[in-house]
Amino acid sequence: MSQQPFSRPGAIDLSGLSAAAPAGGAAPAGGGVSSAYAVDVTEQNFQSVLESSRTAPVVLVFHSPSQSPSSTAMADDVVTVVSEHEGRFLAGVVNIDAVPAIAQAMQIPQVPLMLVLLDGRPATQPMPGPIPLEELRALFTQLAQQLTAQGIAGRHQPRQAEVAEGEEPPVDPRYAAAQDALGEGDIERAVAEYQKLVDANPADAEAAAGLAMAKVLMRTTGVDLNQARAAAADNPNDIDAQTLVADLDMLGGHVEDAFNRLIDLIRRVAGDDRDKVRTHLLGLFAAVGNDDARVVRGRGNLASALF
C-alpha cells in the first residue's frame, strides 16, 4: 500500500460536520476501546473529537462489526499502534452500525477506512483497508517523523480508564520519573524531569502543573513559616517576602489566600516589580490548573488589578 504524505494545506474544513448528526442518544460505538489514547466516537462526542485534533492528530477509523468483522480487527490494530505512540495520535473509533449519521456526513464509501485529521481537517487522503498490523506501524512511524519535521510537537493527554473501587489509578509512565523523584524527596530532580516534559510538549497541562508545584516545593524547602510570615507583615511591598508567603499558603491549601496576596501586591507595585509578581502568580495558577474555579476567579481579579 502506498503511504500518503502528511499534508495540512488545502484540507476540507470538517468543523460543521457534527451538525449533520442527529441529536438523539446513540449507542456507544464499537465494543468499547480500552486505551488511554483511543475513544469510541458517538454523535455526542463527535465535535469534541474533532476539536482534539487541534492539539495533535486524530486518527478516525471506520468499521462495521455486522458488515465486515475484519474491519473491526483493523480498528483494534489502529488502537494498538496509536497507543504505542503515547499521545502523538488519538484514535477515534467509529462503528458505523451504531453511528451511521457520522459515516453519512463524512461520505465514507467503505469499511475499513482510516482518516487522519489535524486542526479539524483531513491531513491525509482516506486510507481504505484492511491494512496489516506491521504496515500500520510503518505508516504511523512515518507520520510521526513528518510531524516532527514540520515542528508539530503536540500530544494528547491520556484518557482516564475505569478504576475499580479501592484501587489506585495507574501512573502515566510519562510522569513516573518526576513522581518517583518527589516520592524520594529529590525536588531538584523532579523539577528537571517535569521541565523535560514541558520542553517536549508545551501543551501538556499536567506536566506544566507538576513543574509549577515542584518549583513551589523547591522555593519553600527549609523555610520557617513563622519567620516568613513575620517578614511579610513587616515588609508589605517586599516582593520576595510576599511571594514566599504565597507559596507557603499554596502548600497549606490556602489557595485563594495565596492568589489574593499577590493580586493585592500587584495593585501596590509598578514596573518590573509588577511583572515579577504577575509572573509568579501565573505560575501558581498553573500549579492549580486553569480549569479550577479559583483560578478562573483569580484571573478575573488579576485583570482588574492590572487594568
UniProtKB/TrEMBL annotation:
Chain ranges of the Thioredoxin domain: 15-145
Region (Disordered) residue spans: 150-171
Region forming the signal peptide: none
InterPro entries: Thioredoxin-like_sf (IPR036249), Thioredoxin_domain (IPR013766), TPR-like_helical_dom_sf (IPR011990)
Gene3D superfamilies: Glutaredoxin (3.40.30.10), Tetratricopeptide repeat domain (1.25.40.10)
Entry superkingdom: Bacteria
Protein name listed in UniProt: Tetratricopeptide repeat protein
Organism: Nocardioides dubius
